[in-house]
Amino acid sequence: MSRFNRRDFLQATGSLAVVGALPGSGMLAQLAHAADPVKLGLLHSLSGTIAIAEAALVDAEKMAIEEINAAGGVLGRPIQAVIEDGASDWPTFAEKTRKLLQRDKVAAIVGCYTSASRKAVLPALDQGKGLLYYPTYYEGQEMHKRVMYTSQEATQSVIAAIDWMAKQQGKTFFLVGSDYIYPRTCNKIAKPTVKKNGGTVVGEEYAPLGHTEFSAIINKIKAAKPDWVYSTVVGGSNVAFYKQMKAAGLGGDKQKLLSTVVSENEIDGIGRENAVGYYACMGYFQSLKNEQNEKFVKALKAKYGANRVVGDPMECAYNSVYLWKLAVEKAKSFEVDKVVAASSGLEFNAPEGPIRFHKDNHHVAKRVRVGRAKADGQFDIVFESDVIEPNPFPKL
């Protein structure tokens, strides 16, 4: 991370000249204050069952911070990351949010992954008058004045995915997910979308978070013989689910399965051989071909190693830091209310392509894609949507 001090700042601004030309003490204090770091909280599960999906987000956020600092910081101030582990435990997320806001005095937080963790921190955000950038696809049904949602809400991914699946071979669907708000809400959106496409839901099952024994659910899938399995199983449970699906003869070469929660990062944890042939619907895939993404992937691999992969939540986490920076610069202030107001209609040329905050609802308009997993852990992109406006409160 670039380091700033008063002398460096004065030299950079041309304010440090000959001794006799030094500015007065008041101006010195003002310039020195301008160079003080501004703190940004990074709050994610670095341990526990959700860490397989969430821990890598911190790497992308740190890289964005370093890039911004190398380019001069935000309003002339370097960003200092304050990193906390939510430990896949929702009360811990709330406790760490209070700590970041009250003790560390962060200007904003980029954090959370599951909806349960996000819901847990909302009271602390209200109490501490904080601001959260939430970089994970989620179920919608929320617009909090202190949260900016930088990934796709459920209607943007679920409807596009089901519409695409229904246009492929077959129209029977088996829905399987982890037992919490995101999967259940996604399936509330999926079921009428299946029906609208002339399809039928032939099964719907849920497993507890962290569950590792899927034989009973897999037996029901085998008995139902669906054309498609739509999966919202999350976190470490996917290691067991994908392995057990393949062992049961329902690997990607035998059973069509699409997930809206498995990116390249999860595949690395699942084992690439266990995910080959399965599909995912995401806003971002590492294999996207555009100049911004090629720069992003090259920089990340240079920093973290040639074998590192980039998944959708990582890219959204990276975007979040830049969206906060752009809003601060537009507002000319770190004050939360001003930053939120400046975010209305704000655009960013992200690695996934141009994204834009909705003028009112704190969510982003964006494209989504469907990819099929390959043996190298990457995805062949087989579908790309038009730009989809966010609709976090659909009529279900």
Based on the coordinates given, report the CATH architecture of the largest domain. 3-Layer(aba) Sandwich
Q: Output the CATH class name of the largest domain.
A: Alpha Beta
Main sheet summary: 7 strands, mixed
Overall mean confidence score, pLDDT: 91
3D shape: globular
Counting H and I runs of at least 4 residues, what is the number of helices? 15
Tell me the strand percentage band: 15-25%
**How are the strands ordered across the major sheet?**
7-6-8-9-10-14-15
Stretches where pLDDT falls below 50 for ≥5 residues? Answer: 1-33
- CATH-defined superfamily of the largest domain: Response regulator
Q: Would you list the SSEs in sequence order as H and E?
A: HHEHHEHEHEEHEHEHEHEHHEHHHEEEEE
Q: Which structural class matches the secondary elements?
A: alpha/beta
Cα distance spanning the termini: 46 Å
